[in-house]
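Entry 14. Ran structure prediction on the chain below.
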Amino acid sequence: MVDDEKRTHLSYDAIKVGDSLPKLKFGPINRHTLALYCGGSGDHNPIHVDSDFAKNSGFEDVFAHGMLSMAVLGRLLTGWVEQDQIRTYGVRFTSITQVHDVVTGSGEVTEKYEEDGEKRIVLDVMTKTQYGRQTLSGTAVICLTA
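Output, structure tokens:
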């Protein structure tokens, strides 16, 4: 997590296309994490917590909710800027996050522009496992001035 002092020093002029956000690691994902996420999210699909159900559905074991990885990217963004600076945030799920995977969220500045009196940047964001397998890809638009 980035402290508030570091957040206030982000400057639109200092940020360049190609700059990267500090990476955020989460995990390893374990069964306890999945059970807690079921309770917190209200998504109680047994494919995420019941090994027998997952195996009977054709999977090797239970696996993480896609939205759990999206939450990791949300933490990456809010560790870098305040939540109210995020204008848009969306992802596409590209692969399953397995039990015991360590998820790393990352982001890169791909564009800078001005709109509605704001200086904004576009970020390509993604999560990957410790094996380099991408599990999410997406974009976020961040306002650096109001």
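The first helix runs from residue 4 to 8. Will compare against last week's run tomorrow.
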